[in-house]
Design goal:
Elements lengths: L2 H22 L9 H22 L6 H25 L36 H11 L19 H6 L6 E2 L9 E7 L2 E3 L11 E7 L2 E3 L1 H6 L6 E7 L2 E6 L3 E16 L1 E5 L2 E9 L4 E3 L4 E5 L20 E2 L11 E3 L8 H7 L8 H7 L6
Parallel strand pairs: 1-3, 2-4, 3-5, 4-6, 5-7, 6-8, 7-8, 8-9, 8-10, 9-11, 10-12, 11-13, 12-14
Helix pairs in contact: 1-2, 1-3, 2-3
Subcellular location: Cytoplasm
Protein name: Tubulin-specific chaperone c
Organism: Pochonia chlamydosporia 170
């Protein structure tokens, strides 16, 4: 594909993704900085896109660059309008925050369309948010629920156990966030179906995480982030929106999603159903295969699967990128592995299960 055409497609995909993220801001929880983090993520995405437009100047005509610039400005305006709509002024300090040496296009302190410092919270509002974040139940009355509703699922998962398989209920959670775990086999049960407002798996090593049941029998994630994961098997389940996969090494991922963006990953097998082209950047040793039949939702209308139409945005030359390939029939894991081995077998450790699915890759 011509570099100009390839960048155009990349730009349009990024814009669509950022628009989705802006549209979802209103539904992101404001407690414990979750909404602020989402806003910062959008700002960083807009900044990155502007830098990419500058880098592409050598092969894009001036008219196209003008169109790209206008589109980025529209994204900034849309973000500003959304922030103004969802941000209660009484909970923010109108004080200029200290900026580092890096000038971030779109950051509040550099963007005159935003009130200076309008994204920093005052001490009272922040303290209240921290108290609310500790509470994952939503069947409570008043601003703060009872102490009985407070659960730290990650702390519970970290406790020693004689059980090979952990099944945290997440029944009192709004979101599923599993972080800083190692050598665990985690299977989320049906009770976690009410906690799929957002999902993230971060800093995992040597783990098996299966989220297929709550996202199939309950509601799919609107978006999902997988970051800093190694030597693990992730059954991510169903995602209605984008999946961001960053910094994953020597692992296997199974997911159904509308859009998949993969960054800085090495030696990862992805079993995928995706209704748009998967996108990789700064990756190597990526292998793709179709979603195993056992993870398809029965009765769901069949949608186009573009699992093998991968775009490598760091490979602008003609021909196939060397950074990804498809798994051959001989390399694809047998269906019985997914149905018999992955759910766990009596007395089988996490390491033994990972070895049976081919982690690490030989």
């Amino acid at each position: 594909m011509d570099p100009k055409q390839k960048f155009y497609r990349h730009f349009q995909d990024c814009v669509a993704e950022l628009q989705d993220q802006i549209d979802e801001l209103e539904s992101v929880s404001a407690v414990a900085g979750e909404r602020q983090e989402a806003i910062d993520h959008v700002l960083a995405g807009i900044s990155k896109l502007q830098h990419e437009v500058s880098d592409a100047a050598e092969f894009t005509p001036s008219y196209d660059r003008k169109q790209y610039s206008d589109t980025i400005k529209s994204l900034q305006d849309k973000l500003n309008e959304t922030i103004a709509k969802i941000t209660p002024r009484s909970r923010f300090q109108f004080k200029r925050s200290n900026a580092g040496p890096h000038v971030d296009m779109g950051a509040p302190e550099n963007d005159p369309r935003l009130h200076p410092g309008s994204l920093s919270r005052n001490t009272q509002g922040h303290a209240k948010d921290e108290r609310q974040e500790a509470v994952e139940g939503d069947d409570t009355v008043g601003d703060l629920p009872s102490a009985a509703a407070i659960r730290d699922y990650n702390a519970e998962l970290s406790q020693p156990s004689t059980q090979y398989i952990r099944k945290p209920s997440f029944s009192m959670a709004r979101n599923i966030g599993i972080a800083n775990q190692s050598n665990l086999h985690i299977i989320l049960p049906q009770s976690a179906a009410r906690a799929t407002a957002s999902g993230s798996l971060t800093d995992l090593r040597g783990c098996i995480v299966d989220m297929s049941v709550p996202t199939a029998q309950g509601k799919p994630f609107p978006g999902l982030a997988l970051k800093n994961i190694s030597h693990s098997l992730i059954i991510a389940g169903h995602v209605n929106g984008p999946v961001h996969i960053t910094g994953v090494l020597d692992s296997i991922i199974v997911v159904t999603a509308r859009q998949v963006r993969i960054h800085e990953c090495r030696n990862v097998d992805i079993y995928l159903h995706c209704t748009s082209h998967p996108i990789i950047e700064d990756c190597a040793g990526m292998r793709f295969a179709q979603l195993p039949k056992c993870y398809a939702i029965q009765g769901e209308p069949e949608k186009e699967n573009q699992w093998d139409q991968v775009d490598d945005f760091k490979w602008l030359k003609a021909g196939q990128s060397p950074n990804w390939t498809t798994l051959s029939d001989a390399e694809v894991l047998d269906e019985t592995i997914w149905t018999k081995v992955v759910p766990g077998q009596p007395g089988m450790s996490v390491e033994e299960t990972l070895e049976k699915v081919g982690i690490p890759r030989h």
